[in-house]
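Late entry, evening session. Most of the bench is empty. Finally got around to the prediction I had been postponing all week. Sequence below, unchanged from the version circulated by S.P.
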Amino acid sequence: MIFFELYRQLDIRIFQTISAVDQTYGSCAKYVFDRDSLVLLGMNHSIRLDILTKEVKKDNPIRNWDVESETVMWFAEDSAVAALIRLINDAYRKWMELDVNISDEYFAMELEEVNHILAGYALRIFADDTGMSIFKDDVQVGDEFTFEMAVELIMDVDENRMDEAGIGQLINEALYYRKLDRYEDAAVRLENVVRYVDHTLPVYSQTVFTLAETYYFLGNYERAVMLYYRVNLQFVEDEDDFYLHLGHALVDAKMKKYDRHLRIYYHSMIDSEFADTHRQAVAAARASVADVFGEYEATCADMGRKKYAEFRNSLPDGADEIDELLEEYEKPEERVREIHKQYEGFKLSEPRSGAEQTTLSVNERLSVALDHFLTGEYQKAFDMYFRLAAQADSDSDFYTWIHLQLGKLYCFFDEPHKAREALKKCDPTRFGVVYRLEDYLFLYQHAHIVAEDFESDDRFRKLVRGRMDPYYAQYDRQYNLLLKDRKLMRAFKTYEKDCVDDSKYELRSVLRESKQKGGGLFGRLRRKKEDDADN
């Protein structure tokens, strides 16, 4: 069995799926791959998804699974295992008719995309209305191969693909297959490279560019465009050439009648070996499009430049319609601004006194603050939580959730004493799926450790933050490098367990005092009982 956790957005997505059919299920945000089942561990009972047969059954609660003695893995959003689990979840939403957006066409596209990823592990998934199966290329039909075995294989392969020599070999193999016109084989190898190479390194952008070009040659324009958008121009020798490549991927898809001739003719211009090998096809393409190709190329270059700028600057969706831009487009006047990591060199500052002018409810303001937090707008989030803390009823769920978020922010920006004070104001009985008890128990003791010893292991502090701060996890290079250290991650899991256990021990006495003094949950229950008796 493989015990694991997931990134928060997928946690919530899975919970929404199951709660639609079982409203009594209480998520623990921990999961198990058990042969061909995905088990969603729960407080009162767990949910077992039999992937082969699409059955949904109740199972033992988390206390019966001895999780504390197991190594609990964590799968990031861009990992192959996370892609597999997203597919399984969407399959159940489709099978149970929970999501009108997951049509047959949408699911088929998602399945194809996941199979592209799994091809790098010699794996492939088959799914229909009766269930889902997974296969390995060198396993004979009839021999056992389970989803659990597939995930174990992915983990082992991932660990072995980290060394640079292996990456160099994959790139060389891909270039070799491209020369043989075996573009699908080349794409599989290049996909492996971009999946495991640090995105801040030159080799990442260079490989993504080659992979995008490979998909363009295959006629998969949509995938090519999305990959071109991931290229960092800092590592591109000829920006004009890059914009031309992107523009062709954008515009050729719209030229249904001529897209094959355009692709062949353009391919011949950037690859002399291809032109020599496919002279007849190139000649036919030249006869069809050569007269207008110069003007068409100018359109592609301008389109590529504009679309790349829009993507990098995150312009509104309404300005992103290709058909509209084909009719009227303009060249950008400024260079694309670089992505700024908003947490670098940042310090929290308390907002000025005075009531916040708003018509939003507390719940709506919490939602806005959470959006700011998830997108790295830390000061905006802090301002809202700080003011909400002064206004919220200390006997409400909101009060606890607000102080958990304040505790996170204080901890992230090196104010562990304030973090500890904020976390002490939380009621441990008030947590749920979005604001989790596990986060609170972990952070409660972690903040204490950092406050007592500010020179404590900085790597653990980065890992704690990455676990609880999606924006930081997405953009921090050092954090993502730490995730690749399996030995460190095992030590971190032990640290997390120790923190949670210590918090549970400390909070037992807090709850006992709360009960005696009439505060917290016990006080609320006693007062309610007294009020009921009076009425």
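Two things to note before I forget:
The beta strands are 2-6, 27-34, 37-42, 46-50, 55-59, 72-75, 123-128, 131-136.
The chain has 23 helices and eight strands.
Will write this up properly tomorrow.
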